Amino acid sequence: MTKITIIIQSESTSNLLMTIKKHTALSLSVIKNHISNNSSLMEVDNVNNEEMEKMKGLVEGLIKYKANFKLYDQDEDCKEELPLEHFMNSFELSRQIADDRERLDDILVEEDDE
């Protein structure tokens, strides 16, 4: 299973800390610890739309405060940096697939009713 993680490499300012807390629900001390240790602040399953939505919100908040961060795509065998543009595109693609599935389910339900 592929996971996407985010590591913050910026100084921990109060605005940045509150943005991270809002999206991760981690305590401020845990956030500061993760930042200082270059540890992952959030890890999401790339097929879970709800989790991806939360990470997208965090990424947008970090961009707003000009934070320096890196995204990583990892599975059991490897970990590689994920470009921001690729993350945003994969998020949109995932959402489109979910929308298509819902439409297909609606069509199949209508056919079953006939």
UniProtKB/TrEMBL annotation:
<protein>
    <submittedName>
        <fullName>Uncharacterized protein</fullName>
    </submittedName>
</protein>
